[in-house]
Amino acid sequence: MRRVLIILAILIVLGGLGAAAYFFIFAGTPTLVVDTGTNPFGNPAGDAAGGESDTVDPDTGGAAAGTVVTQRLIEITKGPVVPGAVAFISSSTAPLPAGEASGTSTVSLPVPDTEVRYALRESGNLFSYLFHARAAKRLVNKTIPGTQEATWLPDGSLAYLRYAGGTAENPEIDTYALPADGTEGFFLPVNIAGIATVGSSSVFSLSSGGNGSIGTVSKADGSASRTAFSSPLGSLSARPAGSGQFVAYTKATGLSGGYAFLIDTAGAMNRLFGPVPGLVALPSPLGTWALLSYTEQGNLKTSLLNIRTRELIALPVATIADKCAWTSDESAVYCGVPVPGSLATATYPDDWYQGAVSFTDRIWKIDVGGRFAELALDFSGATDGPLDATALTVDPRKDVLVFLNKRDGSLWAYDL
Predict the structure, then answer these.
(1) For residue 286, how far is the Cα from the chain centroid?
(2) What one-character-per-residue DSSP string does 215-280 give?
(3) Span 199-214, average pLDDT
(4) What are the pLDDT digits (tens) for 120-167?
(5) What pLDDT is recorded for position 412?
(6) How many CB atoms lie within 10 A of CB 273?
(7) What's the mean pLDDT in 338-342?
């Protein structure tokens, strides 16, 4: 019995020494934790790779703080982002960089920041980005997958999101008005062909089809609707042109001649320009000018049309008007312009709209008063990839130019 007790005592001591050795060797080894809570839609704001500022704040739902590419060029998010962002002067404030205001080495008083608001294509979530503060946050996480287009009120308080709805047997285009404060939204009538804001609190919608086109203006909440104009022409596009007027044009195609019309406050249509193939018209905010793009013997042309005098001014750059944005005071228009010699043989603008061809752009500023164009941004000189600029917008104080790269859906901002 004594021998058995001695053996048991030896085994207990050896076991204790083994346990001590285990904890001594392995206690400091970190445990591998696998996060299984993966977002099925991916990172809402894309992966911010490279650059000086690509940190991610978990409180923003994954929205990156923007990637600084150059001192003036920021990739807000890799997206993909829904075409149609808004830039405005935010009530939020951002401190100026050290010494900018007072010439000292101290940080100056805060100033109003330029805020960019946008929607992600995969989720329809709304996001905000303060340009100078380099701060991003998610505003609304309501999921509206497959959103194709966003139109915002100028103050960024409401987004009209358009997406494919209905059923396979009866497809339709739905438009959902989503407030940026997270309150409940509402639907607009189905199958709206186009939507645009009028002033600060009204919205214009266009219904267009085989029976003609009807333009309607209502309050931002969809109430107090009235007919602005009606036309027997189907497949029209129309945009507000200041003082209750609109500029409308027939479906842009390089396969046939198109017309542009001025629609006055009484709803009467007067021909502005045409017929020319591939015609696209972009009126200025106050309705003084219309930027026109069209094709001539298969080549892109861009001109300025004085709506009052009908004077046509040929421009030294050639692009599609949908790749441009006016400043709010009509003093300039910014455009994504293909690099000379980079255009593929194609039917324009049809093949570009359909995604059959892509452009390699630089951003040009067209000075309306001086009637000249100057290079604003050589994108290829700042990044490794090409730019096909679309959905451009400029904030009211001409501080920041925002644009989408059609090639990958990434959203960019450039300090003007």
Answers:
(1) 22
(2) EEEEETTS-S-EEEEEES--SEEEEE-STT-EEEEEPP-TTSEEEEEEE-TT--EEEEEEEEET-E
(3) 91
(4) 998 999 999 999 999 999 999 999 988 999 999 999 999 999 999 888
(5) 98
(6) 22
(7) 93
Q: Which residues contact 265 (CB under 8 A, 6 or more apart)?
A: 243, 244, 245
- Per-residue pLDDT at 2 exceeds 90: no
Strands 289-296 and 332-338: unpaired
Q: Are 122 and 42 in contact (CB under 8 A)?
A: yes
Q: What amino acid is encoded at 210 in this protein? A: G
Q: What is the 3-state secondary structure (H, E, C) of 44-75?
A: CCCCCCCCCCCCECHHHCCCECCEECCCCEEE
pLDDT of 18 strictly over 70: no
Strand partners of residue 139? none
Q: How many CA atoms lie within 13 A of 376 on its CB side?
A: 25
**What DSSP character marks residue 340?**
T
CB burial class (10 A; 0-12, 13-18, 19+) of residue 331? middle
Q: Measured between alpha carbons, how far is 64 from 81 in angstroms, rounded to an integer?
A: 14
Secondary structure class of 350 (helix, strand, coil) = helix
> Euclidean distance between the first and final Cα of the chain, in Å?
94
Helix (H) or strand (E) holding 18: helix 2-26
Token pair 């809570």 in the structure block, residue: 37
**Residue 408: both structure tokens together:** 């990958």
131 with 400: CB under 8 angstroms? yes
- How many helical (H) and strand (E) elements, i.e. helices and strands, does the chain have? 3, 29
pLDDT tens digits along 295-314: 999 899 999 999 999 999 99
Q: Residue 159: which of 167, 168, 149 has the closest Cα? A: 149
246-274 average pLDDT score: 96
